[in-house]
Amino acid sequence: MERQTEGKAYQWARALCLYAGEGEAFFRDFWKRLAESEGVMREFVYYLEHQNFLCEYKVQGYSVVDILVWQTDHFKAQMDRGRDEMKNNGDRMLLMAFDTLLKMQRDPEYYVNLMRTETGTDYEGKYK
User: Fold this and answer.
1) Could you give the CA distance from residue 70 to residue 77 in angstroms, rounded to a whole number?
2) Each residue of 63-111: pLDDT tens digit?
3) Residue 8 and residue 46: Cα distance in Å, rounded?
4) Which residues contact 118 (CB under 8 A, 6 or more apart)?
């Protein structure tokens, strides 16, 4: 990656963490994991430059958009229960989608299982 692009990605990651309400320790950990992942970094930089998702890099068939949709479903369920930590914070939702993709790389089975079993949406028979 170009040095200038890396610098822009670093600054944007720091700002995104700040806007998302995360501290310096979270940022340092996030950046370290992001810098170690060529695939997720490419997705991150593409989003930074185009304000859209590339969706080329996938873990077990799941892209950052799949994770974002899954997390949005959970967000809606949390709002139904009166918890709204991500309400009006699209930056946090975006950051958490990239963060989850990074975590998913290291433990794909765990996250794939969550995505397949925890939909967040209530449906008939869910709690039986």
Assistant:
1) 11
2) 999 999 888 876 655 555 555 555 568 899 999 999 999 999 999 999 9
3) 12
4) 74
Instruction: Give the global pTM.
Output: 0.84
Residue 128 lies in a domain: no
pLDDT tens, residue by residue, 25-78? 999 999 999 999 999 999 999 999 999 999 999 999 999 999 998 888 766 555
In total, how many domains does the chain have? 1
Task: Please give the residue range of the domain that contains residue 68.
Answer: 3-117
In this structure, are residues 121 and 74 in contact, taking their beta carbons and an 8 Å threshold? no
The secondary structure element, H or E, covering residue 2 is none
**Number of C-alpha atoms within 13 angstroms, CB side, residue 7?**
3
User: In whole angstroms, what is the distance from residue 37 CA to residue 42 CA?
Assistant: 8
Answer yes or no: is 83 within a domain.
Answer: yes
Count of Cβ atoms closer than 10 Å to residue 13 Cβ? 20
- Asked, for residue 44, whether it belongs to a domain, the answer is yes
